[in-house]
Amino acid sequence: MGDAKPMNEAEGNARAGKEEIASGAEVLQAMLKTAKAFRMYLPNNPLRKKFIDEATEKMSAHLRRYGQFQLDVEQFTIYYGGTSIHENRDAKESIAFRLYSDGIRSLLFREGIRHDEISDFLDIVGQDRPADTDDDIVTLLWIKDFPHIVYLLAEDFLEADEGKGAMPTVTSQKVGIRKAYEVPPEASTQQAPRNIEPITTEQAAALQKETAAEEARDPLQEVLKVLASILAGETDLGMFQEFLEIVENLIGNLLHAGRTGEVLRLIRYLQKLERSASVAPGKRELIRSDSGKYIPADAVLALQKVMEGAQDFPVEDLPDLFRYLGPRHMKEICELLGTIQQMKMRKAAISAVVEVGKGNPRVFYPFLRDQRWYLVRNIVLILNLLGDRQSLDAVAPLASHPDLRVRKEVFAYLLKHPDPRARTAVIGFLQDESPPLRIRTLQILAAAKFTPALKAVEEMIAAKDFAEKPVQEKYALYEALGALGGDSVVPQLQRMVMKRHWLNRFKEGEVVACAVAGLKKAHTPAALEALRQAEAKRKGGELETLIARALKEAEKDGGGPISSGEDA
Question: Whole-prediction pTM value?
Fold first, then answer.
């Protein structure tokens, strides 16, 4: 159990920034120098006082800035924020070894710590003591009863997670130590002394309080504690695998019961064992290879009810949960995306899936054929966010999906894909049944100067149904025609802007507006000259104003293609 610090504390530590870790290392170095000074100098030596003052000052500054100072202990190494900040493999000199040997796995120093607390603490951990003494570090810390220093023992690390990351209280530590020194059963046969004094009212109240606390203990926590201890201490790989199966069966039952807090604690503990260098390689490999192996599929699907039923469901924990369950259960996780109705929860689930699915995007491909439009859309979005470039052949056919929301997601995927075939596939959206999507496609192709689309644009303008198209789409078509055709289409556009429609002024205005839009997007010298000539010919009225404004904007732009404002 070399790294048995509280699992949720470890998660918080993993997020410590570089400055905080550097500050933590500086505090620890000051403490180590002070602990060494206790062995080298007498109590009245000024150097000893100087070291204590320096350690206190650095500790206080760190606590003011970060709120607490937690050290996690392995056999020869001390960690802060998941980062090793001190290592000494000399058992005689290593404070980490002393703490670890006495069962301490974490130390937490809280804001408000006093000068005398730090001094007494370093005196305890820094002094050499005879091997036959009964006063180990844990006992001495218990006797001192420091109000701002809490320590976590190997056997109660799971209990430290029961209160959302709270370290064990001093009272719980005293109870644990007291149990270690209880009189064995065989000693009860000895005759009790006759002069037993009755307990006081205060003692009776304390006993009653401890009895109530014992009765209120959750049996599940005891089971978790026992299983964790076995996994940490079992050396036979066969037995270890059997207990690993028991733990995963328990995880499945807890998922069914909606006890995600306990599930996450067990999963994080297993992940921690798998990462720990002090755990035998064979055990680490079993945890890695058997991850999720014994968890039934229906237990994963039961998450949907929990995720939508709990208002305070910890969405930030989903990546850890999905990382452990997949890729064995990626199918069930994708099924979850098809059943979760709450948008907020679905977005959180998608973000978590993206984070854990980077190594195996192909597992998502089968769900592109699902009948549920929202699941298909979510899978396309996931592949887009993953940047999976191998899925083009699987995604491109969905451009004709019956649901517009899926087609929009496919459109976004194709726009980001670097393969030239993806941009060619975008041209197909010019025939989409949705006018807004067709207009968006025209704008994107025009802004990208994707000239292979010119033929399709010309065919749409020449088609019989052009007259029935929305006016916004007509403008977009001519803008694309000018941007993609350049000088080759200027004569056509110039004829349109000059032609009079004496019997249909409304049609004339629409035709001129379309031609002006095309010339403006072409933005070549010939196109600008055509606009100048049109301005000179069409004097008075709204059309002159339209042409003059377009010419002014084109000349102000100063040359080069006029962007539609869309990112290709």
Answer: 0.53
